[in-house]
Design a protein that fits this description.
The protein is of the alpha+beta class. It is built from two helices and seven strands. The strands form two sheets. A five-stranded mixed sheet has the order 3-4-5-7-6, covered by helices on one side. A two-stranded antiparallel sheet has the order 1-2.
Length: 112
């Protein structure tokens, strides 16, 4: 019998989900909360399918959520594509972190 995890993006089979959810701390001294902000590691997705997958995940998010993309290079073309084509993309809130030479984490926030 398969087990599933209910998410804002539908039910996902337990195991290796394509999207993980991260725990974030509150700004005040309160307890940590789970934001259900999706993280999508696209390094194993064929390059021809990456942008479509990212757009689908972004579209499925609620306003105010942030999609974190993990990639092996800085996603400048994706940033410019999102800024030009996706009205809900908050380009001023975009952030990029180089976690390792082959691991870039880009945050794509969705306008509220």
């Amino acid at each position: 019998m398969a087990s599933f995890l209910s998410t804002p993006f539908g039910d996902l089979p337990l195991g290796d989900p394509p999207v993980e959810y991260v725990r974030r701390k509150t700004d005040g001294g309160g307890p940590p909360i789970i934001d259900r902000m999706p993280t999508l590691d696209v390094r194993d997705i064929p390059p021809v399918n990456r942008h479509e997958t990212i757009h689908d995940e972004f579209e499925a998010m609620d306003p105010g959520d942030t999609l974190t993309i993990v990639n092996d290079h800085e996603p400048k073309p994706l940033f410019y594509e999102m800024a030009a084509e996706v009205e809900a993309f908050d380009e001023e809130g975009y952030q990029l972190t180089e976690a390792a030479p082959d691991e870039y984490r880009a945050e794509f926030p969705k306008l509220e």
